[in-house]
Backbone:
């Protein structure tokens, strides 16, 4: 705006139009003179995502959207609606967003990993997923309440663009979603966990653990060969020491692979003295993996073993499995 000789308040007008009104085209900016609107139109592209398909779960609470971003595959994002609970916990609209088309990390049970890596998303494309749903929810006087960076891709493999997107959505004069309402999940890229520990941003960190010994973890998550547990766990301690924030460890429970009481004991040994929480995810089916989810009874036994050791542990509710919107089920092939 300065280079164009415009007054500085134009910046705020545009910023607020984008992030508070969710305007998606320069035409919407009724607060700007027409000549400026036209200039903006000539110089900037406002929309990279085109919606291709939207599917809704049977209960109506989960919506998965496929967006075209001019690649052969596109990306998916998921909106999860949690109604107000009987104990008056307010309703939540949690968004699960993607940071890459595909993923290079090759975790064996994950549909995104099974499709391989195609490309990184830009901050703009990450932000747009949120604005798309904000617009949709806004039309019903609702708001995005939480954002989990747990869709397609490994966020720390696209660190700058991911953090850039969160910073933008966190901006107090724009979208203004509190940093604590974001959770970034990583497969365990140690150098970036260290970098994240030094950020001033107070977003939550989740780590996909899934195994408490190197042999088992490497067999499911190849990145463990590069960053084994003896590097990962100290990086987690360092994060907690620096930020005083609790880490969430994700554990996809797989029948007869990592669901025994012995596995829970090993996990307790690994997490000893660490401010953390364990989130159990019953394995979701994907085409490229034959492992089966653990039974409910075994999942409860695993949970109660950890709780007996004073490790807080919850079982994540399965959402949108029938529309392939569950954890690790996002994959796109040709649109
Ligand atoms: N790349 C990041 C975030 C995306 S995956 C990461 O790996 O952490 C989000 C979560 O879903 C991760 O904890 C991942 O391990 C888990 N996940 C992947 N495939 C799954 C499956 N088939 N069933 C259950 N959880 C799965
Ligand atoms: Fe990538 Fe996460 Fe899937 Fe692993 S689990 S392949 S890191 S998206």
Residues:
């Amino acid at each position: 705006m300065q280079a164009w000789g415009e007054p500085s308040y134009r910046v705020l007008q545009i910023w607020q139009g984008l992030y508070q009104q969710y305007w998606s085209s320069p035409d919407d900016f009724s607060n700007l003179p027409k000549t400026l609107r036209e200039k903006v139109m000539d110089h900037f592209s406002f929309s990279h995502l085109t919606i291709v398909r939207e599917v809704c779960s049977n209960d109506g609470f989960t919506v998965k959207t496929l967006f075209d971003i001019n690649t052969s595959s596109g990306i998916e994002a998921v909106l999860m609606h949690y109604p107000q609970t009987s104990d008056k916990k307010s309703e939540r609209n949690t968004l699960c967003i993607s940071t890459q088309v595909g993923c290079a990390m090759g975790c064996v049970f994950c549909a995104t990993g099974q499709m391989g890596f195609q490309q990184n998303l830009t901050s703009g494309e990450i932000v747009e997923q949120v604005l798309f749903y904000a617009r949709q929810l806004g039309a019903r006087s609702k708001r995005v309440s939480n954002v989990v960076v747990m869709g397609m891709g490994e966020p720390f493999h696209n660190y700058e663009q991911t953090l850039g997107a969160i910073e933008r959505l966190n901006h107090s004069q724009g979208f203004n979603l509190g940093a604590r309402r974001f959770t970034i999940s990583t497969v365990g890229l140690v150098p970036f966990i260290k970098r994240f520990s030094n950020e001033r941003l107070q977003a939550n960190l989740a780590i996909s653990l899934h195994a408490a010994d190197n042999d088992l973890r490497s067999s499911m998550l190849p990145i463990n060969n590069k960053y084994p547990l003896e590097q990962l766990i100290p990086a987690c301690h360092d994060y907690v020491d620096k930020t005083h924030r609790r880490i969430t460890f994700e554990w996809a429970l797989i029948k007869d692979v990592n669901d025994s009481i012995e596995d829970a004991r090993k996990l307790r040994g690994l997490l000893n003295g660490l401010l953390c929480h364990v989130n159990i995810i019953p394995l979701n089916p994907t085409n490229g993996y034959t492992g089966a989810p653990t039974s409910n009874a075994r999942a409860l036994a695993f949970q109660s073993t950890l709780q007996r050791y004073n490790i807080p542990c919850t079982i994540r509710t399965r959402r949108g499995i029938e529309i392939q919107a569950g954890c690790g089920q996002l994959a796109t092939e040709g649109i």
Summary: The pocket of S-adenosyl-L-homocysteine (ligand 1) is lined by residues 107, 109-110, 150, 154, 185-187, 208, 250, 252, 281, 283-284, 286, 327-328 (CB under 6 Å).
